[in-house]
Design a protein that fits this description.
2 domains
Length: 131
């Protein structure tokens, strides 16, 4: 892992490389305040879609939104938060997709076994004789 020569801040530990920018090292400089982090909207959407399921469509959306949200959070950790929500949405999405796959397999299984073994008629056969 290398740190570029022109870098002002370490991308791994987020420490300032220039002592003039680090208020903990330089008492004469004013402290640097970062703006408050906002929750990633895609992470929230992933969690909501994972909870709602909506016949499998919500689960697919939860997985897609969760992975995109995680990537955005990883790229901008000082501005965005919501990693836990994105991970929960991804997990719920995959569980929903698994549940949908199980329902489809069971539905096909019961549909095929019903065709192979048709149900017997409920009515009893009557023999009419002339009197």
């Amino acid at each position: 892992m290398q740190i570029e020569d022109l870098a002002l801040q370490c991308r791994h530990c987020q420490r300032w490389l220039d002592p003039a920018l680090d208020s903990t090292l330089n008492a004469d400089s004013p402290p640097i305040f970062l703006p408050p982090r906002i929750t990633n909207g895609l992470a929230m959407g992933s969690l909501v879609c994972g909870l709602l399921w909506v016949g499998g469509v919500g689960s697919i959306a939860a997985v897609i939104l969760g992975y995109i949200g995680l990537r955005q959070i990883r790229r901008e950790p000082l501005r965005l938060k919501g990693k836990g929500m994105a991970i929960a949405g991804i997990a719920l999405g995959w569980l929903g997709i698994l549940g949908l796959a199980v329902l489809i397999v069971l539905g096909v299984h019961f549909w095929k076994t019903r065709e192979v073994n048709p149900q017997k008629p409920h009515a009893q056969q009557v023999h009419l004789t002339a009197v």
